[in-house]
Amino acid sequence: MNTAASDTQATTPTSLPRRALLGGVGAVAATAVLTACGSSVGADSDGGAADGELAAATTAPPGPDAEVVAGVADVPVGGAVMIDGKRLVLSQPVAGDFRAFVAICTHSGCNISGVEGDEIVCNCHGSRFRLDGTVAKGPAKRPLKTRPIEARGTDLVVG
Ligand code: FES
Question: pLDDT by residue (tens digit) across 56-107?
């Protein structure tokens, strides 16, 4: 879902606690930004599919170290949210299809900056990712790295 509104909305970088970050986020205006962009953590060797390949939906259930990171209602359909302090981006491209991504850009390892409309954005060099994690705009060539995610009742559990 790409709307004219999402193309024209400005984002306001903010750092929010996990639950506060998720509250009141609309499907089109799911905009939240991590505090730091530009810290490289060397994520470029994470592997992943080539540019243009779909990021596979994670089918394996979260492992024994899984934890509740958000509520099902916190992730808007057609949108995404950042989970502050967890280096995660959660998205829901279509109703009931939850995705979890490591919030590190596959280009050069900057922290993902935030979500603008229906895209996940890295401001270091301008890469943008779709809600399924695939590259919408380079220079990144590989999709975001996925994490196992599962809806358990009203909770989203990531392993
Ligand atoms: S590190 Fe994200 S665009 Fe370069």
Answer: 445 567 887 899 999 999 999 999 999 988 999 999 999 999 999 999 999 9
**Residue 72 in contact with residue 91, Cβ under 8 Å?**
no
122 lines ligand 1 (CB under 6 A): yes
CATH 2.102.10.10: does it fit domain 13-158? yes
User: Would the CB of 148 count as within 6 Å of ligand 1?
Assistant: no
Pairing of strands 128-129, 135-137: antiparallel
Distance CA 118, CA 77 (A): 10
Binding site membership of 120 for ligand 1 (Cβ less than 6 Å): no
- pTM of the model as a whole: 0.67
Domain boundaries, the chain: 13-158
